[in-house]
Design a protein that fits this description.
GO terms for molecular function: ATP binding; hydrolase activity; RNA binding; RNA helicase activity. The structure is a single chain. Helices cover 40% and strands 15% of the residues. The chain is α/β, with parallel strands linked by helices and 508 residues long. It has 3 domains: 225 residues, Rossmann fold, CATH 3.40.50; 166 residues, 3-Layer(aba) Sandwich (Rossmann fold); 70 residues. The strands form 3 sheets. The chain has an 8-stranded mixed beta sheet with strand order 1-4-5-3-6-7-2-8, with helices on both faces. Strand 16, helix 21 and strand 17 form a beta-alpha-beta unit. It starts with a strand and ends in a 6-residue tail after the last strand.
Length: 508
């Protein structure tokens, strides 16, 4: 997919991360112009993108990465710190100083772990090249037309941003493989995520398909939020001996739960969350012995609902639910039983997110968005305690994507495909539930997501419409669940179309 700057949104909406934590004591981009940077690249970043001062990661790396130094570097930098510009500017400077635009060879190859990140990088490259429009930026990512990508690459591609699997597919074509014959720069972005997703064999194959550095010298860069032993292995694969290591993360600034792998699973709709949850829990339980998990739900009614559904699924460890509505003695009994268990699943609300210690929790599921970032962090903190291993799985629907994109924009999620294998089974279980319980869940869902209207970008009518769709498709309700007038008033939904409002004394 070729990128055209005219197709992109305004720069102020595309690169918010580059304006965060702006420091005015770092060097100015204009300082590079005289000897290091093409004037049109300088104008693009200062006049068009309106970035005057370098972010710390840029100030720490650009002098090493830009010509004439062009050192191979392993850079430790968190997401959202301006690292994309830190590797793009040196690579683009090399390209414009050595290569005619739209020739038959690729100058810069960027390998990204996800499609979304690849597209974001390609957009940044296109913006930086907007005053040099003859240079072409292309992407090669899964889920798109492979033949169209092939044609675009062969018709002249100067910058290629790719995901590993699709890149290897293209490299099997001799003509595309030859396009890397004069590669100037190779970048692996989010190298730790690439490895966490199991791409090391694919990365080896990519390097094998590139010309040797002896035959065609190139600069290589690795950017990673962490530098664990497995990242050092890939550094040995792509970087030249004597490469420079640069860390832009202050000592002691690493996140408390950085050692906990965090997966992000997205399903299409709120109604499909249940099937995605059951499939994920079953998948994790079958992979691990002594499986001890906490499944967090947004509300007590949803926690009870999820617990009921999971208890009907064969082959899972013992299921229990813990909610604030329970009597204290029952809560204590359930807590103690789960605490001493070696293999069990607890479905709970934020009641257990803070101040409760459950040893040996291997996995934390968060189903639906939490109330805020702090809630997410505290929930995740139930696993991986005392530097033990742990996993976090965050399952949301597409409408909830705003939360990880904003509140958790510096969290290194490992994207994971959703499985809906349990869809038909759980739908039948939900359909057979008592109608009064469905009404409780519906009211609870409506009240909770009303708190997130701004993030969801909904008005009140859209909230009600989505709640009704969830009741029909997710709960199997035959009609819109009734909701008492007083609750409608308390929710501020009086007069909102789509509600089935009933008198307060209506049985529910």
């Amino acid at each position: 997919m070729a990128m055209d700057v005219d197709d992109l949104p305004p720069a102020t909406n595309s690169t918010p991360s580059l304006t965060e934590d702006l420091r005015h004591d770092t060097p100015r981009f204009a300082d590079l112009s005289a000897h290091f940077l093409h004037p049109l690249l300088t104008q693009a970043i200062t006049d068009d993108l309106r970035f005057q001062h370098m972010m710390p990661v840029q100030a720490a790396t650009l002098w090493e990465l830009l010509p004439p130094n062009r050192r191979d570097c392993l850079v430790q930098a968190k997401t959202g710190t301006g690292k994309t510009v830190a590797f793009l500017l040196p690579a683009l400077q090399t390209m414009v100083s050595q290569k005619s635009p739209a020739s038959s060879t690729v100058s810069l190859l960027v390998v990204s772990p996800t499609r979304e990140l690849a597209l974001q990088i390609a957009q940044e490259a296109t913006r930086l090249l907007q005053r040099l429009p003859n240079y072409r930026v292309c992407t090669a990512i899964g889920g798109t037309n492979r033949d169209k990508e092939k044609i675009q690459i062969l018709n002249g591609c100067d910058v290629l941003v790719a995901t590993p699997g699709r890149l290897v597919d293209h490299m099997s074509n001799e003509h595309i493989s030859n396009a890397f014959g004069q590669l100037d720069t190779l970048v692996l972005d989010e190298a730790d995520t690439l490895l966490d997703m199991g791409f090391m064999p694919t990365l080896r194959e990519i390097v094998r398909n590139l010309p040797s550095k002896e035959r065609a010298p190139r600069q290589s860069m690795l950017f990673s939020a962490t530098v664990m032993p497995h990242v050092s292995q890939v550094a040995g694969l792509v970087l030249s001996p004597g490469y420079k290591s640069i860390s832009t993360i202050p000592t002691g600034a690493t996140n408390t739960h950085e050692h906990v792998a965090q997966m992000l699973i997205k399903v299409p709709t709120f109604a499909s969350v249940l099937a995605g949850m059951v499939s994920s829990v079953v998948d994790e339980a079958t992979k691990h012995e002594n499986y001890k998990a906490i499944v967090f739900a947004p509300t007590a009614a949803l926690a009870g609902f999820y617990g009921h559904i999971l208890s009907m699924v064969p082959g899972l460890p013992q299921i229990s639910s813990l909610q604030s509505r329970m009597r204290q003695n029952k809560r204590t009994r359930i807590s103690n039983k789960f605490r001493i268990a070696s293999s069990a699943i607890l479905v709970a609300t934020d009641l257990v997110a803070r101040g409760m210690d459950f040893p040996g929790v291997t996995t934390v599921f968060q189903i639906g968005i939490p109330l805020d970032k702090q809630s997410y962090v505290h929930r995740l903190g139930r696993t991986g305690r005392a530097n033990a291993e742990g996993r976090g799985i965050f399952l949301i629907c597409e409408a909830e994507s705003f939360f990880p994109n904003s509140a958790l924009n510096q969290t290194r999620f490992i994207p994971h495909e959703a499985s809906m294998a349990s869809g038909e089974e759980v739908h039948h279980i939900a359909e057979r539930m008592d109608e009064k319980e469905k009404i409780r869940i519906y009211k609870s869902w409506l009240a909770y997501y009303r708190l997130h209207l701004r993030g969801l970008g909904w008005g009140k009518e859209e909230l009600v419409s989505e709640a009704n769709r969830y009741a029909a498709d997710g709960l199997g309700s035959r009609e819109t669940p009734p909701i008492p007038q007083s609750i409608v008033q308390n929710l501020g939904l009086t007069g909102t179309k789509g509600l089935n409002v009933v008198p307060d004394k209506y049985p529910s």
